[in-house]
Each structure stands twice: as structure tokens, then as C-alpha cells.
């Protein structure tokens, strides 16, 4: 059954002819559906330019060297991956920007990807329909020819950025699929289509940790499109959980109200207001996310709607996408620097816990009870306040205190060394190396892109090592 927000028979008929190129044979007599011009897509995304893609291999190689020599030793020594479950691989450092599509079922996520890539009526197109059609996480990437790759193969290939997905189990890998398509846009970006959110308790039994998998992709996405349509504006438990996972990534989120030409102007205004009403409790930020209102599919816009407005909205979204692609390298360096800042803060905290433990221990003390007291109430021993006072760390970058209860529950404090002991004659000190990467090496690498200028040497005193990198492609 197909549901529409429609007030007249003529509107319903127009939707059947405009919105669904996959109509069954018995109603194909309405004639061939007119397709809209795609020249604005090719122009905005620069798909017709013969200019070879910029070669960033030397910069990426330098970035990879900085990570392995200056960040990873401290990360491994203090087991940062067990705190945040975010392991950076070489494939992730060299990967293309990732655009993630999220939202309820049958709102047009797969159709939108087909439209952006021009895959409709080709052997490459993703399957679409009015019913829930995408049950897998589908990664659309570039390849010399059309090719489908099973999830177990993608996870086994260390050269790709998807090898860490193996930790979610074989049931999930059976729901992961890769599609290689010879398309110019995919030479610069990777799209990820996700299963639609279904607010039905029985259908939520997916057989794998759906929310954890979503979080993995959210953490690595450069741009996140959350897609809605006029018929699916209600917010249930699964959608609420999704927006909780998106917290902290607001600058990457773009809300899309799709299928906008299926409504008359007055109805569209009401739906737009209803969408904000539904999402307001879920997005707790001062600045609302950017919302695009259009219809992202090949058929021409409905003639009695605001075609010019929808086209401008579409071009604005394409410019947003192109900006992410153009700033790929800057964003990658900023991401590694932000990761380094978090690793440094984690190491300083573990060092502070360890130092406090050693200070409180006496010959007659029970080590387990002493450390339990420290972990249960770190404020009593000024653990976090000491870090803020002495190490140029922003209070907004400090991790949750509760997380360290779990962390030390599986990692005994005795298994760590003090930061002062993490030094060698040839390799130097781990802390000094990561601070040099944060304040000198990564900013210098960032400054060398494009203009070829080296930024002035910075220090923690002027920038604060706890500074969070600015999102460089966020629209003003």
C-alpha cells in the first residue's frame, strides 16, 4: 500500500506518474516519463573536466608516517582503542571522503544515489521501491568495471578502510556489500547506503549490532545525509537512538526533505514545520543543521510546484558535496590531529591515575581497594582538575569519567607505565613526539597544501593542545 500526503485525485495521479519510475506494467500507458536535465550536476561536481585528479600520495604518505611514528606508539601503550573503539588503519588514512545516507525506509536514499551518479536505467543502478528494499549496508565505490564484492572479502582486504568491520561478526558481514562502478565522481568520493530505519520492534531484530555498525560509519563519514520524505516524519525509538549517535557530528549533518514536489506549496510548508518540530528535541545545538528541500530523482519536477526553488536547493547540496571532496586532504589531516589530541588527553589521564595510585599506596595498603577508591571518585583526588590546570587541555575535550571505570575494569592499572618512563635514547619520549605532531608537524603539513606556504611554528601556549580542529568545509 502506498501512502501520500495529498488532497486531490489529480495530485495522487501526478505522484504516480512523477514519483515512481518503477510503476507496474498495468499503468505504463501514461507514457514515457520525462527526465530532467543533468547538466547542473556535471557542472557543479566538475564531472566533465578532463583535468587529472590531484596527486596527494606524497602528502598522504607523510601523514601516514606522522601517525605511525608520533601518535600510534602512545595510542598502543595506553590502549586508547579500548576506550573509544576507534582504530585507525592505513586504509582509512588514504581513503576517499565518505558520504553516508541515513533515514527511514523508502524515503529515497538509494534513488538519490542513483540520481547523483546517473545510474537509472543502467545495469549499475541500486534497486529501489516503495517497500523497504535495502537490507544491507551498501558501499558504492570506484572500480574499472562493474563488480560486486562480498562483505567478507571487503573485511579481509587490509588495503581497504573496511577491515575493522570484521569485529561485528559474520552475520553483519553477510549484510555488507560493496559495488564497484566505473564513474568519475566515485574516483573522488565513496557513498554508503544504509538499511532504512523501521520503527517496528519485531523488525529491529537484525541479527547484528545495528547501532554499533551505524556508529562506526558515522565516526568515519565526512558528510552525513539524513533523508526524510513527507510521509515519514514521525520519530520512534530507533530514529531517536540514531540522532543520539550523531551527537558531536552536527557540522557534518545535512537534513534532506525529499520528494518535495509531491506536495502543494501550503502542504509543503506544513510538512517542513512538522519536520523541525519532530527533530527539535533530537538536535540539541544552538545552530540548526542545514535542511535541503527538493526531489532527488530523475523525473521532471511536478509542473505546479516551485521548480526554481527545488533546483537551487539541489545545486546548493551539490556545492556542499563538492566542497567536501575539494577539502578531502585538509579534513583528513584535521581528523588525525583531533585523534592525536584525544590520545594525548587519554595518556595524560591514565598517567595521572597511575601517579595518584602510587602516591596513595603504602606498605600496608590494599592496592585493589586504593585504586577502586580513586576510580569511583576521581574528583576527590583532583584527577581531571590537575589535567586541566597543568597541560593546556580544554575542559570540553575531556572524556566521560564513567568511561574510565569500564576501562580500568579490563585494564589493570599495574599494566601501565608512567609517561616519564615512556622514553628511549634513540626514539625520544612518546609524549613529546605526539605534542610535536599536534603543534608542529600536522599544522605544517596542512599549511603546505595548495598555497605551498609553511605556517609559523606553534606551541601549546599559543594554540592549546586541547584545541579541537575547525571543520573546514562547514558552510558559514
TrEMBL record:
Domain Dynamin-type G: 93-334
Keywords: Glycoprotein, Membrane, Sarcoplasmic reticulum, Signal
Protein name: Sarcalumenin
Subcellular location(s) per record: Sarcoplasmic reticulum lumen; Sarcoplasmic reticulum membrane
Coiled coil: none
UniProt-listed InterPro entries: Dynamin_N (IPR045063), EHD_N (IPR031692), G_DYNAMIN_dom (IPR030381), P-loop_NTPase (IPR027417), TRAFAC_Dynamin-like_GTPase (IPR051943)
Record bears the keyword Mitochondrion: no
Gene Ontology cellular component list: sarcoplasmic reticulum lumen; sarcoplasmic reticulum membrane
Membrane topology (UniProt): Peripheral membrane protein
Major site of localization recorded for this protein: other
Source species taxonomy: Eukaryota, Metazoa, Chordata, Craniata, Vertebrata
Keyword Metal-binding: no
GO molecular function: GTP binding
Amino acid at each position: 500500500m502506498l501512502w501520500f500526503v495529498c488532497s486531490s485525485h489529480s495530485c495522487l495521479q501526478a505522484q504516480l506518474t512523477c514519483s515512481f519510475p518503477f510503476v507496474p506494467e498495468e499503468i505504463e500507458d501514461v507514457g514515457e516519463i520525462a527526465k530532467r536535465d543533468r547538466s547542473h550536476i556535471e557542472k557543479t561536481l566538475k564531472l566533465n573536466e578532463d583535468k587529472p585528479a590531484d596527486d596527494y600520495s606524497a602528502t598522504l604518505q607523510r601523514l601516514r608516517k606522522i601517525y605511525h611514528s608520533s601518535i600510534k606508539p602512545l595510542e598502543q601503550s595506553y590502549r586508547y582503542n579500548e576506550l573509544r573503539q576507534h582504530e585507525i588503519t592505513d586504509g582509512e588514512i588514504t581513503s576517499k571522503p565518505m558520504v553516508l545516507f541515513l533515514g527511514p525506509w523508502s524515503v529515497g536514499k538509494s534513488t538519490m544515489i542513483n540520481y547523483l551518479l546517473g545510474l537509472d536505467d543502467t545495469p549499475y543502478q541500486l534497486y529501489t521501491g516503495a517497500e523497504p528494499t535495502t537490507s544491507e549496508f551498501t558501499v558504492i565505490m570506484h572500480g574499472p568495471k562493474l563488480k560486486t564484492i562480498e562483505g567478507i572479502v571487503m573485511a579481509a582486504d587490509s588495503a581497504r578502510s573496511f577491515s575493522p568491520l570484521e569485529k561485528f561478526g559474520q552475520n553483519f558481514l553477510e549484510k555488507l556489500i560493496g559495488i564497484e562502478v566505473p564513474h568519475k565522481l566515485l574516483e573522488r568520493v565513496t557513498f554508503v547506503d544504509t538499511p532504512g530505519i523501521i520503527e517496528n520492534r519485531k523488525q529491529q531484530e537484525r541479527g547484528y549490532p545495528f547501532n554499533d555498525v551505524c556508529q562506526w560509519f558515522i565516526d568515519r563519514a565526512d558528510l552525513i545525509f539524513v533523508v526524510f520524505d513527507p510521509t515519514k516524519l514521525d520519530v520512534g525509538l530507533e530514529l531517536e537512538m540514531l540522532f543520539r549517535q550523531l551527537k558531536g557530528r552536527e557540522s557534518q549533518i545535512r537534513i534532506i526533505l525529499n520528494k518535495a514536489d509531491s506536495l502543494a506549496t501550503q502542504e509543503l510548508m506544513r510538512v517542513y514545520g512538522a519536520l523541525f518540530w519532530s527533530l527539535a528535541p533530537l538536535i540539541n545545538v544552538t545552530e540548526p543543521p542545514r535542511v535541503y528541500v527538493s526531489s532527488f530523482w530523475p523525473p521532471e519536477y511536478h509542473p505546479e510546484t516551485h521548480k526554481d526553488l527545488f533546483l537551487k536547493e539541489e545545486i546548493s547540496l551539490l556545492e556542499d558535496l563538492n566542497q567536501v571532496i575539494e577539502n578531502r586532504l585538509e579534513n583528513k589531516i584535521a581528523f588525525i590531529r583531533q585523534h592525536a589530541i584525544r590520545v594525548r588527553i587519554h595518556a595524560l589521564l591514565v598517567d595521572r591515575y597511575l601517579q595518584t595510585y602510587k602516591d596513595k599506596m603504602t606498605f600496608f595498603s590494599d592496592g585493589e581497594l586504593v585504586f577502586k577508591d580513586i576510580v569511583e571518585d576521581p574528583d576527590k583526588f583532583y584527577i581531571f582538575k590537575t589535567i586541566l590546570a597543568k597541560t593546556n587541555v580544554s575542559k570540553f575535550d575531556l572524556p566521560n569519567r564513567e568511561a574510565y571505570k569500564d576501562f580500568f575494569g579490563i585494564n589493570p592499572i599495574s599494566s601501565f607505565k608512567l609517561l616519564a618512563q615512556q622514553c628511549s635514547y634513540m626514539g625520544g619520549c612518546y609524549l613529546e613526539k605526539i605534542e610535536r605532531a599536534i603543534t608542529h608537524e600536522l599544522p605544517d603539513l596542512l599549511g603546505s597544501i595548495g598555497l605551498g606556504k609553511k605556517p609559523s611554528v606553534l606551541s601549546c601556549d599559543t594554540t592549546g593542545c586541547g584545541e579541537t580542529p575547525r571543520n573546514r568545509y562547514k558552510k558559514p
